[in-house]
Amino acid sequence: MTESSDFAQMSEAEARAELARLAKQLAQANQAYHAKDAPEISDAQYDALKQRNAAIEAAFPTLKRPDSPSDQVGAAPSEGFGKIAHAVPMLSLGNAFDDADVTEFDARIRKYLGLSAHDVLEYTAEPKIDGLSLSLRYEKGRLIHAATRGDGATGENVTENARTIQEIPETISDAPDVLEVRGEVYMSHADFEALNDRQAAAGEKTFANPRNAAAGSLRQLDAGVTRGRPLRFFAYAWGEVSAPLAQTQMDAIRRLEAFGFTINALTELCDGPEALVAHYRQIEEKRATLGYDIDGVVYKVNRLELQARLGFRATTPRWAVAHKFPAELAWTRLEAIDIQVGRTGALSPVARLSPVTVGGVVVSNATLHNEDYIQGRDSKGEMIRGGKDIRVGDWVQVYRAGDVIPKVADVDLSKRPDGTVAYRFPTICPECGSDAIREEGDAVRRCTGGLICPAQAMEKLKHFVSRKAFDIDGLGAKQIEVFYDDPDLPIRTPVDIFTLEKRDAANLNKLRNRHGWGAQSADKLFAAIEAKREIPLARLIFGLGIRHIGEVAAKDLALHFGSWEALITAVDMARPAALAHRAGDEAVKAERLAATDEGRRARIKDTRDKAISAMDVPKDAQAAWEDLIGIDGIGATVGLSLSDALANEHERAAINALVQELEIVAPAAPAKQSPVAGKTVVFTGTLEKMTRAEAKARAEALGAKVSGSVSGKTDILVAGPGAGSKAKKAADLGVETIDEDAWLALIEGL
What we know:
The protein is 39% helix and 18% strand.
C-alpha cells in the first residue's frame, strides 16, 4: 500500500481537491459495478484508487470527507426493486496484493489478540468468486427473502429471482430458527458461452463476461427471464443466526453444506501466512481450469470467538482479507500506434496488436496512456520500465484486469527489430488539424480545435445548450445528437442554432413535419432560440466550453472586463506573453527531465526567466498578460487555455460568427455608488473578520474588481497580518495600502 508519507509534499488544498476527485470517481465506479452491472474500470484500478484515497486520508486526517470512499460499501439499491434492510451489514473485504501484505495481515491479527509469532492461529482459505453477493434469509427452515448487497446496509429484494436458482433450496432441515446464508451468484464459463450464443441467435444483447451476465440475470424485473439463465450459487458465510452454527469458520461452512448448499471444494484450513500463500499459489495455478471466474483467495480467522473479538472497522472485518490475483498478462507484437481524440480534446495513443488471448478474451487493442508512457517516463519525468520506450514492431507485454481496455505493461528489447525508430507523438490533431498542446503539469496533449474539431464538437454543443450556459428550452443533449447528423438542418457549431430559421424554407417545413416535432413544437423551439439571442456575458463565456473555464471563472472574467470586446482585445494583446509563459513551462520541463542532481531545483526559476526573456515580449503584451492572470481566481492555467482558444483560427471564426448573432449583456452595475466602484482591489495576508471569499464577493457587489496580484493597475491593497511580497510590491508602486479595519470603514453602510 502507498505510504502516507508519499503525500507529505501535498498542500491541504491539493489534498482536499484530490479527495473530492477520488470520491466522485469511486462513487461512479461503485454505481457502474454494483447498480448497473457494467463496470467502467478494472478491479485493479478500483483498488489503486481506494489505496490512494486511504493514503491521503492518513496524511491529512482532518480532511476526510463525510462521503469518504473508505466508509462506502457497494451502491444504493436500484429503484426498480423493493428494498430489504440487512439485519447484519454485508461488508466488503480489505485487500492484500502480495505476500508481504499477507504476512502483515497475520501480524496485525496477532498483535490485536496479544498472540506471539509462535502461537497457533488457523485460517481458512477459499477462492474469491467473481459474481454478485446475495443474502438468503430462512425462518423455520423456509426461504423468506433474498437480497443483494446494495450499499451494505440495504439491498434489493430479488426473492423471486433467487427461487429460480437450483442451488438455492426452498427449505432446509435442522437449521436455526433464523438463518441468513450468504454467498455468491455466478455463471460458469460453459454456461456463459452457451447463453451468449443463444442471445446472439435471437438478435439480443450479448454479455461482456460471466460476472455481468450473472448480475444482470439476477437483477431482472421479470423472474421468468432469470429462470432461463444458468445461474449458480456458492455459500461461504452467514448473517443473522438465532443460534451458532459451529465454533469455527470451517465447521460452519461444512454445516451449510449439510443444509444442502454448495460450498467451494478448494476451501482449506491453513496454519499461518506461509501456508496461506502456498494454498494461494495452488489455486492460482488451477485458475484457468476451474470453469468459473475468481479474482483472488479469501483468508478468514478460523475460530469464531476470535472473529468476534477482532470485530469490524467501518466497512471491513478485521479478521478477513482478500488476497487479489495480479492482472493477467500476455506477450504479442505491436503493429501500429493510432491516436484517438476524446471529447475534451485529449489525444490518446492506442496500441494496435497482433491478436492475443489474455484471460480468456481476445485482445487486439490496448491503451498506451500518453506520450510520456510511450517514452518510458511517468508524469514527473521519472523512468518507468527502466526507461525503455515503446516502438512499432516491438514485442510487448499486455496487461488485462477486468473488462476495461487492456494496457501495454512492458517491452522486450531483446526482440526489438532492427531499424525501428522512436515514436514521435503528434503535435497536430489528426481529426481537425489544429495545434495539439500540452500544458505544464498536464500528462495529456490536447487538441485546441474546440468547436471545429469533430471529435469534440457534439459534446461542446451539449455543454453550450446546458442549463447553466444558454439553456435553450426544447434543445437539450438528445436534440443536439439528432441535429448534429441531420442532413438537412445540421447543427455543428453554436452559430448554426441561431441561423436555424434563416435556412431553406423547405427544410424548415421538414422540421415542422418531423415525427416527434410538429409545427407547434418547432415554432416553440424557434421562439426559445430567439429569446436567447440576448445573453449575459458570463453565460456566453461559460457556454463556449473552453477548458478550465467554469461558471466562477466565467463570472470573474465578465466582471473584470465588462464586455466581450474588452475581453478579446485584452486576450489578443496578451498572446505574445502567453506564448512566452508556455515556452518557460516547456524549458522548465526539459530541465526537469534532463537533470538528476540535487541542484536542479535552484536552476528552475533561472531556466524559466531565460526562456521568457528570449521571446522578447512587448511591454503592453506583458502588462495585458499580468492583468489577465492577476484576476482573482484566474491564473496562468486559465489564461493560457483562454488564449489558445481565441488564437485558434478555426475556433475563433466559429466564435466570431456566433457573437454576430447575439446581443451580449454586460454585468450589472452595483445597485448604488460606492467609493470602490471601478477600482481594482487586492486582498493579502490573513483576514480576521471575514473570509477571503466573503471579502471578494462584497467588493464585487460594490463594483470593484478583485485581483490576485499587485500591478500598476491596482488601486487598493487590503493587507492583513502576514502580508509579504504583495505589500512590498504595493509600496514600491505607490499603491494605497490599508488594513482590514480601514477597508470595512471604507465600505461601511454600503
